[in-house]
């Protein structure tokens, strides 16, 4: 089963579960969705009326996190840490993966310096390990590392996640 088929199944599962939930139960499902290792698209969940009803409640932080995962990047999170609850490690990894995906959708050549700044990675070895072991292994992006030019050349990327830079502002 490829990543796109897996996405459809996982999205359907979370949409079904979320659509019949409210309050704390719904918040728990949103936390699970943003932490799920194979879920990279969140717009369908975000579009549910019951999710929108979280706005202004004690569970609105989960709505904010879901919006971040649907439309934001690691930089968006870093700029809004006072407004968004702290992410757990699996969510941090996921948001960084989504950031690479977002960048890959815009540029086919990603300079190492840009990637290191966007992902808060301090050295090239750590960046290359992240790109190979996390991004390419997860199937969200395929590409070539060019150590001489210090860039990642994007060959293909997963297309479920569409980034709208104004949606999270």
UniProtKB/TrEMBL annotation:
PROSITE patterns: PCI
Listed Pfam families: PCI
Entry-linked InterPro entries: COPS7/eIF3m (IPR045237), PCI_dom (IPR000717)
Highest rank taxon of the organism: Eukaryota
Record key words, sorted: Signalosome
Residue span, PCI domain: 1-159
Family note: Belongs to the CSN7/EIF3M family. CSN7 subfamily.
Protein name, per record: COP9 signalosome complex subunit 7-like isoform X1
């Amino acid at each position: 089963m490829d990543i796109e088929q897996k996405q459809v199944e996982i999205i359907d599962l979370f949409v079904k579960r979320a659509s019949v939930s409210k309050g704390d139960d719904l918040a728990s499902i949103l936390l699970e969705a943003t932490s799920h290792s194979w879920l990279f698209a969140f717009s369908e969940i975000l579009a549910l009326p019951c999710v929108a009803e979280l706005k202004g409640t004690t569970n609105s932080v989960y709505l904010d996190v879901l919006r971040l995962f649907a439309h934001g990047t690691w930089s968006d999170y870093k700029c809004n840490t006072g407004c968004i609850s702290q992410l757990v490690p699996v969510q941090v990894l996921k948001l960084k993966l989504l950031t690479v995906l977002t960048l890959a959708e815009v540029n086919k050549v990603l300079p190492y310096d840009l990637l290191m700044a966007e992902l808060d990675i301090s050295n090239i070895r750590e960046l290359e390990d992240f790109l190979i072991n996390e991004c390419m292994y997860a199937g969200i992006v395929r590409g070539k590392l060019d150590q001489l030019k210090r860039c990642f050349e994007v060959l293909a990327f997963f297309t479920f996640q569409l980034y709208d830079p104004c949606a999270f502002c």
